[in-house]
Hints:
By secondary structure, the protein is α+β, with helices and mostly antiparallel strands.
Amino acid sequence: MPVAQTSVATSPVWFAAGFALRAYNTFGFDVRARYACRIESEADLAAAVRDPRAQGLRTLVLGGGSNVVLTRDFDGLVLLMALAGKRVAHEDSHAWYVEAAAGENWHDFVSWTLEAGMPGLENLALIPGTVGAAPIQNIGAYGLEMAERCVFVRAIEMATGQVVEFDAAACRFGYRDSFFKREGRDRFVITAVTFRLPKVWRANAGYADLARELAQHHGGETPHARAVFDAVVAVRRAKLPDPLELGNAGSFFKNPVIEAQQFDTLVVREPQIVSYQQADGRVKLAAGWMIDRCGWKGRALRAAAVHERQALVLVNRGGATGADILELAEAIQRDVLARFGVELEQEPISL
């Protein structure tokens, strides 16, 4: 069942060759695309990939551009996802099933669900990007991952134009990972996502920073969903820079998950290491803590730097290139590996 769209184009809007992408990536890198096309409907997408100008070219889908490091001009076609629309597709006695188009701003969508009286996504407030990007990365924060709420992902196969609906199992969600980030990359373009929001709501407020923020403003009271939303926004704003003010892609590195045996050896050398026991017996480590202990917090490599309040975040202080950011990331990875014997994996895709 397609999402009701706020605007439908009979044909996609193409922009002049050499289209500037600075406003379409949150690092603010000054790179260009050979071609760019604004996609406002599934018909636009089908028309764009059939267009003679697109033949033989690589394609890149950009929504908010919050999970990509553009290291050079893109010699291909950039699809600027602007599919809009959101609705309650279905509800039963247990849950609402809410469908949103891929171009919807993620934070605005989360806010809309709360205003409509449908909680369940509040822990994911203020994450940059669009709805369509959320399944690719399986975004998560403060004790919740998008996979826990996702029911279906609607996508179009680029080679055939066929519409395919993936259930949650077919999406193969993992920690900041999915089918669309691996095997499905460059094969499918996500056009809509359906979420299941349970009618029996329970606050998910166990994360330490979130619990402290709620305690400060709500004392011992049981928080309501809007209070959790507001607390998440406050915590994120206190720790993370606004991409509109300082170019960044949020958390640049994943928190590594290691085997229990490796952790037992590591904790002898590093007894203060911040860790989280996982259900499968493995242990998740706090990448930001390790980066900080290696002395990188606040340090810079030319115009690329590690944020002074959150070591997981790499920033563009102005004039940095994608290559600068990757050079900084590699230096951090080398130091963390040398001290802790742990490899850090970056979250954003590099192109």
